[in-house]
Amino acid sequence: MGAMLLGIIVSAILYGITLVQALYYYNRYRTDAWYMKSLVAATIVLDTLHMGFVIHTIYFYLITKYYDNEQLNFMIWSVLAEAIPTGVTGALVQTFYTIRVWRLSKRNYVLATLIMLFVLGQTGCGVAWVIISLQLSTYEQLLGISGLTLSINALSTAADVIIAASLCYLLARSRTGFKHSDTMINNLILFGVNTGLSTSLCATASLIALIASRNTLLYAPFYFCIGRLYSNSLLATLNGRHHIRAKVDDTDHMMISLSEASREGTNSSSKNQRAQNIAIRIDTAQEFLTDNKVAIGERSGEL
Fold first, then answer.
1. What is the model's pTM?
2. Domain ranges within the chain, ordered by starting residue
3. What number does CATH give the domain 2-247?
4. Which positions, given as ranges, span the membrane (predicted)?
């Protein structure tokens, strides 16, 4: 019960962070497509539903049945129902990332299908877990389906790792050799690793805890938190777009300032040389870089 309480506390903290991120998203990205806003709204509703279930669970065991030690061996419906919003949230967010992989890979259906097989497998095992567990009454009986729980965690971990690895590989392959594009790509890779790392680590930790201690509920804290981590990962990805663009703009501004300083030094040197009546031919090449193409213009002159 102590591990469960700890997991609920951490989950509540993550829920608060989710609400803050959602508020920022709706204020900052008002022009986003309706389906993106709907996805964010769905994750918030599911997170709220999950918090309601786990609060009911902890209130029942620590307040209502505080003096009833025998009741601690029996499961209440809400501790099982919380798996529903967690599973749906995970499936939605993983599907969102799968679509990103599909687009970045130029519609690689094989890769996208492979990821979705893990996602659907995880969802199917989750549905089976809920149906079976609702027919059980004690935690000891719940340990009897630990194999199914292990399958859910393994499939979730595999999906997260493949998604993160695919995004990093596809973004790295998109490097063009130009500073502007490569700076944005490097930031996207770093940001993708950071946002996907939390869910992967939590799923892996839950998997390790389940394997190492199959006769306990040591994995429960990780399972209570993983849904909130998926929500925060999604919102961090959406909210990070402006931050990444700002970092690239700052880099461009610094490069422009250095370029201007270099030109000022060149002009000063040219004036000194002209005073000595020395004819110098100067060839300059200007490179203009945009997100889509590069235009190079040349000009020459004699001083």
1. 0.77
2. 2-247, 253-302
3. 1.20.1070
4. 6-26, 38-62, 74-97, 109-132, 152-172, 184-212, 218-238
